[in-house]
Design brief:
Blueprint: E1 6-10, H1 14-25, E2 31-35, H2 39-52, E3 60-64, E4 75-78, H3 90-111, E5 116-119, H4 124-135, E6 142-144, H5 148-162
Parallel strand pairs: 1-2, 1-4, 2-3, 4-5, 5-6
Helix pairs in contact: 3-4
InterPro entries: L-lactate/malate_DH, Lactate/malate_DH_N, NAD(P)-bd_dom_sf
Keywords: NAD, Oxidoreductase
Pfam family, one: Ldh_1_N
């Protein structure tokens, strides 16, 4: 008997919705909550997801701008952040994202005190540390995507240079 798995994806932007697609295609969660405070974006993504339901098994999927919808999540994937402005330093971006996380992370943990948090927001290593400190969770329950994106970009570039599939670059 396998217990059901609830995953919350925080952020209905491009990255968050790509994460949702991966969860759906690989059937990694029994229940998915897509949480975003931008209700207009949420409505648009909800319509797109329902249209895609003809091609993808949607299972139990919820869209919400209420923190309470995230309650009792096993995994919370934080894919939200402020978009970097032209000419903005990574430090300035970090400062603005920290302000956003100060509201977000404690609320997530209030509703899902037993969750694991995966951070994919940039700059990812710093934001993972911030999420860990704000969450009060043990270090083993808050982690980040780390250099995953950098590694896949590097594989793509090497594959292109040597005319091989990036999948074959190890």
């Amino acid at each position: 008997n396998r217990r059901s798995t609830k995953v919350t994806v925080v952020g209905a932007g491009n990255v968050g919705m790509a994460v949702v697609q991966g969860l759906l295609v690989q059937k990694l969660a029994d229940e998915i909550v897509i949480f975003d405070l931008n209700s207009d974006r949420l409505k648009g993504e909800m319509m797109d997801a329902h249209y895609a339901g003809a091609y993808l098994p949607l299972g139990k999927i919820h869209f919400s701008d209420k923190y309470s919808a995230t309650a009792n999540s096993d995994l919370c994937i934080v894919a939200t952040g402020i978009v970097k402005k032209d000419g903005e330093s990574r430090y300035d971006l970090l400062s603005r994202n920290i302000a956003k996380f100060k509201k977000l992370v404690p609320a997530i943990v209030d509703y899902s005190p037993n969750c694991v948090i995966l951070v994919v927001s940039n700059p990812v290593d710093q934001m993972t540390y911030v999420a860990w400190k704000l969450s009060g969770l043990s270090a083993g329950r808050v982690f980040g995507a780390g250099t995953n994106l950098d590694s896949s970009t590097y594989q793509f570039l090497i594959g292109g240079h040597f005319n091989v599939s990036p999948h074959d670059v190890k």
